[in-house]
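lol ok so funny story. i was supposed to be doing the assay writeup but got distracted and ended up predicting the structure for this chain instead. priorities right. anyway since i did it might as well share w the group, maybe its usefull for someone
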Amino acid sequence: MTLKIFESIEARDNKVYLDGKEVSAKIGKHSIYLDELKIKVMWSHNGKVEPIRDFELGKNWNELKIGVFNNESDGLWDKETIYSLLSEYSMFDKLSKLNMSPHVGDFVYIKNATSNMPFFATHCDPIGLYGFEFENANVLKTGAFSTDKMRRFLTENRIECSDHAFADLTNNDNVINGYCVDLRRTIWDMILFNKIDEKYSLPYYRQDKHELIEKIKFYSQFPHKKRAKNYQTYLLGNEYQDGSRDTAYRMDQMGIAHDLTGNTVLDLGCNLGAMCVESYRRGARLVSGIDYEQDYIDCARDLARYNGNQINFLRMDLTKESTIDWVNAYYPNGVDIVFALSLFKHIKSKLFDLLQNIKFGRCIVESNNSPDGEQSDHAKQIISYFNHYGFKYDFFGMTDDRSPRCLWVVKK
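and the output, tada:
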């Protein structure tokens, strides 16, 4: 089996975009069918099947809304989900030989899946989606599907099927032009083979470690593409990779606990996203990173995927009101920890406009180069904005891994 790879899919306003281009698509409850490309993808979240709509009505809603859905797999693909995909694929393959379903082709993997699921605000799942090529039933000659033939097929192949699943299987949405086009009801009540033939196996996607290191080295420099190496040290698998700024050291200087279980995190101007990855490693969930540079976001998503981390990295402009709206929608109860590191030099008062209009427990603000500490002109400017906006702040010390910079803990 071969695997065709795409970078991204986005479901937005009943439209679907694949690698940035709008494509004709039918959005189902558990899958999306891309008509022109003849591709059917299984919708999932964090590597486990979950509906693309009405998810708040399902049994997993409590886990979804706090970011721990499929957390037991640590971001890896859920075994039941993969088995259901292989079962669906192999069953369609057998049914197609009876002219009861369209033909299947290669497997498909889409690296990033963006939608409003499950947080009612834009979320990019870096674990992605699997699917397969599937002929369009609408353009084929009429097929030979019938309820009796399907019952015989299930009996002959010793496939168990509940009455509800069978009734759902044969309704008008799932049978088109004489072909069965959908076998997926729910992950817990789906038609499944008891045993899948060995010839059906999913070729998993895995980014080459050394290629990723080189990509990060080239694209995540700061200023962009103007340094010899990447801006941040970062965790890749179980090893820290070198960078200009030491992520673990910075977090220790900021007094960030080694156990962040139960905390939510937002990194403004996240670059490669190393602060998010380290926060996730320490137990934080609903972790997001925002940056304006698309290359940084692409590297951050690749890193999250490699590590199996469900971290939401988005390209956004921190100076726009739409970013404030997104933060308040994604974190309706506020964010526990916000990182605003070395940002003031770049966006000035817009940083404080943003902080004033979102809810947070504490924000770590880091200055840019301040060789005289709080007596530096740059640091004094930041302090004047703290006072102007009425923020409570405490000087927390300095970082000196690239140049001397002030740290403050800010609260409202």
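The mean pLDDT is 94. The longest strand covers residues 104-115.
back to the writeup now i swear
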